[in-house]
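Is this the right way to post structure tokens for a design question? Let me know if I should format differently. Anyway, here goes:
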């Protein structure tokens, strides 16, 4: 299965946060690798989207559309900056 970059989940993240979050930076909770959401490896063939760390491959973000609403699990991604809070 081919991985996409984090831009593939831009729409779902916008639905959840109300802003473009692909430039948000953070680190993998598993290995500590730092990067932007746009740099994650995203797989869309699950019943939602799974974003994995580019360095270690562990799951860092899971997004699922449930009854018209986005559900988000970011337990594997430590957000350092939220573009929404920058102005």
């Amino acid at each position: 299965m081919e991985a996409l970059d984090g831009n593939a989940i831009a729409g779902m993240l916008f639905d959840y946060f109300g802003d473009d979050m692909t430039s948000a930076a953070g680190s993998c909770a598993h290995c500590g690798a730092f990067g932007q959401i746009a740099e994650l490896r995203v797989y869309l063939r699950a019943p939602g989207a799974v974003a994995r760390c580019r360095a270690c491959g562990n799951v860092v973000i899971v997004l699922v559309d449930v009854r018209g609403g986005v559900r988000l699990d970011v337990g594997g991604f430590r957000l350092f900056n939220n573009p929404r809070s920058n102005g």
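Format looks fine. Someone answered above. Worth noting: The radius of gyration is 12 Å. The chain has one domain: 4-85.
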